[in-house]
Amino acid sequence: PVSVQLSDYKPYPFEIEQVNLRFDLDPDATKVRSELKVRRTGGAGDALVLDGEGLTLRSISIDGQALDASCYEQTDKALIIASVPDAFTLVTEVEIAPSQNTALSGLYMSGGRFCTQCESTGFRRITFYPDRPDVMSAFHVWMAADKATYPILLSNGTPGETGELDDGRHYAVWDDPHKKPSYLFALCAGDYDVYRDSFTTMNGDEIALAIHVDKGDAERAAWAMDSLKRSMTWDEQTYGRAYDLGVFNIVAVRDFNFGAMENKGLNVFNSAYVLADEATATDADFEAIESIVAHEYFHNWTGNRITCRDWFQLCLKEGLTVFRDQNFSADMRSRPVQRIKDVIRLRARQFAEDAGPLAHSVRPDHYGSIDNLYTATVYEKGAELIGMLRRMIGEELYRKGMDLYFERHDGQAVTIEDFYKCFEDVTGEDFTQFRLWYAQAGTPEVTVEENWKPETHEIEITLKQKTPATPGQPVKKPVPIPLEMALLDEEGNLAEWTTILEDEDVTLTMEMPDTVTEPPLVSVNRDFTAPIRLNRSLTREQRLAMVRMETDPFNQWDAVQTLVKAEILALSEGSQAEPDDALVTALAGAVEQAVDDPAFAALLTRLPEVGEMFLERQPADAVALNAARKKLQSALAAKLSGFSAETLGKPTPAPFDPGAEQAGIRALRTAMIVLLGVSPDAGAADTLRGLYDNATNMTERLAALRAYTVQKGGKANEALADFEATWKDNPLVMDKWFALQATTGDAETIKTLAAHPAFDLRNPNRVRSVVAAFTMQNLAAFHAPDGSGYQAVEEIILKADKANPALGARLLTAFEQWRILEPQAKAAAEATLKRLQSAGLSSNAADIVARALG
Ligand code: HT7
Ligand code: ZN
């Protein structure tokens, strides 16, 4: 695709003062009438260019006068009217076919109901419009549909008049008083069950809250509603931001390209992130619902009231909103556990992206395909940058800067520069160098060297930074890296401070009291203050001491991870035949010691996934790494067998509560179930079958089924069939059934799953539950040296891409690390990518493949 450049930005030469939309809804032929009040703000000679794709134009007029065909031009992407007055009303009427919309962008059908997805360029598939985020307007919507089939009619803002029409149709009016860009437009129509509640804001306004779900599912929206109300309270208390409309609606749909969408006053959610109860959802699902509901709600201020000037600024809303939802989750649950989970995700997804051919900066300066910009770098690294900003200036100035941002830019579409100007104004500091973090791709590597001088009781710490070259950016400048540091001995912290590494290197000298005779341990990047990779040459003894002596929970967990990673590498490369007993004992000891914080203890038992090992040493051999990981996991299972029996011997908490406390207990229980899956104990399979049969919640039932499937010797097929028979009518639970097999099976399993009658190429959740589960969480099978893993998904991805380019492109990102694989898998991956390239991909997918092949 043609590359779009940030430097080409030009303001739109017209203002759209008001948009009046009229929808006559019909799955096969929906009529959309748009009335735009337009005023020229740019040059007198500027043509009016409106985006529009796949629209059948029925009529067009200016100020009531039908336009002659010679006055306008319609291309496959736009409507161009060369000569227009300075102020006028444009009316267009178009026809679209939502039932034919398989891309799930624009107006489409899901489960027999109408719904929309407009970010980033879906609105142009509904009507002709300047479909760009810096054109903000007031929307008035009138819609009509068959009353029996679509009794509920929703759009943004607040509801107005409703009434009956002929032929069993009815209509509703919605008005949104807040000016918004077209990507935040939404419309939903259908027959839903509704879970209702209300919220009184800090200003005393009463808000009607409603979650619209499939018939029969209302009670399963209770947790989402609870999460919404807690998010509303949190944003008031933490950022002083209250909700600004009388109603807040959520609609859950089963067919959705992403997690959810923050449309003004009408959030649309993938039903996977709304519906939950103890029988059908895991604790991970409850946690994801809580954070995604919060994320979309927080967008109301960071994204909707203040939006992006252009899509290059996507991190302005996404990085900031992820940062806000991460802090919400940390406040709802355990802050250190939340931090560790966020970093696991960052390292697994963003560090991998940053190190491969798809690397790009947090604010890119060009893109081929806009849908491919919704990446871990923009979201997760973008959030880390806000976290560093807050640490550097402190909480108070951070809040002042945010207050100024809300005050100065409310109702505007702005840039990263506008955002940082607010912080420059409240701190008097210059953030020019800090903004390099937004422009440079790649994960900085910080090397730490220590030199203890026993004569003077001084420790010298040298820090050096280097950011590796990335595609299109061969040379990097140093970025400011805030590092929380400490010196530790057996008693605890000897010193604590923050260093901002601004230059390429710096040497710090710390003087210790005379009583300190041994070199203290240096604790660096505590709480993961900066998104960097640390390079240290510590001995195993020093690392073991770190596990014992660390006072920062993140770094204690990370010390364990570093040891475990080194062990897996040694086992995978054959330099060591069996896991080191001292290490396994230390690991088991750390787990047992953390038993009072079960969520943390559970994290300590979690060994890095194969993908997390790819960046440790290259070429990466997924099969060898997987075998080594299993060996270590099995040794840990044996060491913890007594602890495991004790943990699982206690009853699971009852009655069920999805909150952090019980979820922590279940996390440790499921960690033990995972270990039973690789336990050498002869009775493990039977224990697991018993746990599966008797589980009272989906968290433990699914973990037991998975572990039972992994344990050879059990009757996995029988248990899988039992699960299928129980849940065949619940699509979200069946997604878990598909994913479980895709993550534990091989290429043949994928072929069997794709041939299952319930496999549905049109449903992104189902496709992801097979393909993404396999390609992202079963790397040994996906990267099989004979290429069988690639072959198994190739055809499915091609078919998915034909119907839904956003989905096809996303699935293809699984190939991003092909260059660092061992030679056989690498050759097979390259051949697959080349075959795909010549197979007629969508432009979204072609963009990913072209960049991957570089
Ligand atoms: N802002 C939302 C992005 C989104 C999206 C992007 C492309 C294609 C489909 C999509 N659905 C939702 C999600 C969010 O970050 O809140
Ligand atoms: Zn978002």
In short:
This protein is an alpha+beta fold and 854 residues long. The protein contains 27 helices and 31 strands.
Q: Could you give the order of strands across the largest sheet?
A: 6-5-9-3-2-12-15-14
> DSSP helix count?
27
Q: How confident overall, as mean pLDDT? A: 97
Report low-confidence residues grouped into runs of 5 or more. Answer: none
How many angstroms separate the termini?
14 Å
Query: CATH first level of the domain at 1-184: which class?
Result: Mainly Beta
How much of the residues is beta strand, in percent? Answer: 15-25%
Helical coverage, percent range? 40-55%
* Radius of gyration from the alpha-carbon trace, in angstroms: 28 Å
Shape: globular
Q: Write the CATH architecture name of the domain at 1-184.
A: Sandwich
CATH topology of the domain at 1-184: Immunoglobulin-like
Give the SSE layout:
Elements: E1 4-5, E2 14-24, E3 30-40, E4 48-51, E5 56-62, E6 65-66, E7 72-74, E8 78-81, E9 87-96, E10 106-110, E11 113-117, E12 137-146, E13 152-155, E14 158-164, E15 169-180, E16 187-190, E17 193-200, E18 206-213, H1 222-239, E19 247-253, E20 260-261, E21 266-270, H2 283-298, E22 307-308, H3 314-332, H4 335-355, E23 366-367, H5 376-393, H6 395-409, E24 413-414, H7 416-427, H8 436-439, E25 445-453, E26 458-466, E27 481-489, E28 492-501, E29 505-511, E30 521-523, E31 533-536, H9 540-549, H10 553-573, H11 581-593, H12 598-605, H13 610-613, H14 622-639, H15 641-649, H16 660-677, H17 684-694, H18 698-710, H19 716-727, H20 731-744, H21 747-754, H22 764-777, H23 779-782, H24 788-803, H25 805-812, H26 823-837, H27 843-853
Parallel strand pairs: 2-12, 18-19, 19-21, 22-24, 25-31
Antiparallel strand pairs: 1-23, 2-3, 3-9, 4-8, 5-6, 5-9, 7-8, 10-11, 12-15, 13-16, 14-15, 17-18, 20-21, 25-26, 26-29, 27-28, 27-30
